[in-house]
Design a protein that fits this description.
With 226 residues, the chain is α+β, with helices and mostly antiparallel strands. It is built from three helices and 14 strands. The protein has helices spanning 8-30, 157-167, 169-174; strands at residues 39-51, 54-64, 76-85, 93-99, 102-111, 116-121, 130-137, 140-148, 176-177, 180-181, 183-191, 195-203, 208-214, 220-225. Residues 1-6 and 9-30 have low confidence and may be disordered.
Length: 226
């Protein structure tokens, strides 16, 4: 019986073929860029409440610091932002609320331009379904519970970005090279009668490609470049 072994040259050729295929596979995997790493503003939840002429909006946000739309993403902080419309703006206003078995409160500052009160603190309410609140407005006290506009059929910000990446492949490709993505991304959940997403893609020249997207289907409803 004759036993035949692979020749040295055949073994080397087979080794290099396997190595080339493996390198090709790894290169292909590496070429898939994670664009969520370039999100420099994310508004992922909105909670709303109204009572006695008072209208409260609470946002779950992550924002870069400093907050500059220059196409360069920076480290983000997680915050709660609260905005309150009142019949008048001539009273001292404080916000009290309870979340995750903890009590929070703080004085709201008044913005004369927007004619609304504002409060912000370091807190993640992106998963909150509701938020019981109390407003101390001068001598008046108002209790209300802010309810999230999110529902099970609303897409996540990550899913919306994936849908946009697929439909706007040329735009993403124009800003992507071997060094990464030459821009930053803003994603904001908004609610005007129904939930939508605003997505802004800002390049290093400050050019903004803005999209209004259906929060349930991911369909692009409008887009513009400024």
């Amino acid at each position: 019986m004759t036993i035949r072994f692979f020749s040295h040259s055949y073994f080397r050729k087979g080794f290099f073929i396997v190595f080339a295929l493996l390198l090709l596979l790894l290169t292909g995997c590496a070429s898939k860029l994670d664009y969520t790493a370039y999100i420099s503003e994310l508004r992922s939840n909105i909670l709303l409440a109204e009572a006695d002429g008072f209208s409260l909006r609470i946002y779950a946000v992550e924002k870069e610091i400093p907050y500059i739309p220059d196409g360069i993403p920076r480290e983000k902080t997680t915050r709660l932002e609260a905005y309150l419309h009142t019949p008048e703006g001539n009273q001292t206003c404080q916000l009290f609320f309870r979340f995750d078995d903890r009590d929070f409160h703080g004085e709201m500052s008044y913005d004369n331009v927007k004619a609304e009160y504002f409060f912000s603190c370091t807190l993640d309410v992106s998963k909150a379904n509701n938020l019981p609140c109390k407003i101390q407005y001068g001598e008046k006290e108002i209790e209300m519970t802010a309810q999230s506009v999110r529902s099970a059929n609303i897409l996540s910000a990550e899913n919306v970005l994936s849908v946009l990446e697929a439909s706007e492949a040329e735009l993403f490709a124009s800003l992507t090279d071997k060094y990464g993505f030459a821009g930053e991304i803003y994603i904001r959940l908004i609610c005007e009668d129904a939930p939508y997403y605003y997505v802004g893609i800002i390049d290093r020249n400050g050019v903004v490609n803005a999209f209004l997207i259906n929060a349930q289907s991911g369909k692009i409803l409008a887009k513009r470049t400024t």
